[in-house]
Design a protein that fits this description.
Largest sheet: none
Shape: elongated
Order of helices and strands: HHHH
Radius of gyration: 20 Å
Number of domains: 1
Number of strands: 0
Structural class: mainly alpha
Strand content: under 5%
Distance between the termini: 40 Å
Length: 148
């Protein structure tokens, strides 16, 4: 398998974990630290895969992280709501008149939280990539070894 194949597989990791987290949240007790503990590495690996696949500037890695974070947590909440409603559950908040409005608000809140998390992960990775590239530019050229 090539590096590109692994990069594509890594890129699928964040949305796939979002689907799994959504189902997990409905059928078992999924608290916020556990959600972040699963979602953060998935977002980081998917962001690295995107950076490897697209060979983008390190600052674009932060934006890719934000996009993948919003996708992961927004998708996990959307799947949770779909499974919850399919099983006959209701969303209970007095501030919203309809279940559709409540669902849209929950998905938007989770997508915004995911974008924030993804931006932090992407910015950290961009900083590491930038530091690695800067260190590589400042390294003296390797001397050729000769056998005498």
């Amino acid at each position: 398998m090539t590096v590109r194949t692994y990069a594509f597989a890594g890129l699928v990791l964040a949305p796939a974990s979002g689907l799994a987290l959504g189902v997990w949240a409905e059928f078992d007790d999924l608290n916020a630290p556990l959600l972040l503990g699963v979602a953060t590495p998935a977002i980081a690996l998917a962001t690295l895969a995107a950076a490897r696949l697209l060979r983008v500037h390190p600052t674009a890695v932060a934006l890719a992280g934000a996009l993948l974070g919003a996708l992961t947590l927004g998708l996990s909440e959307g799947v949770y709501i779909a499974v919850h409603r399919a099983r006959g559950g209701f969303l209970n908040f007095e501030a919203f008149d309809s279940q559709g409005e409540m669902a849209a608000a929950l998905i938007a809140i989770h997508a915004a939280a995911g974008a924030t998390l993804g931006l932090a992960v992407g910015a950290s990775l961009a900083l590491l990539l930038w530091a690695g590239r800067a260190r590589g530019r400042n390294r003296p050229a390797a001397r050729a070894r000769t056998i005498s």
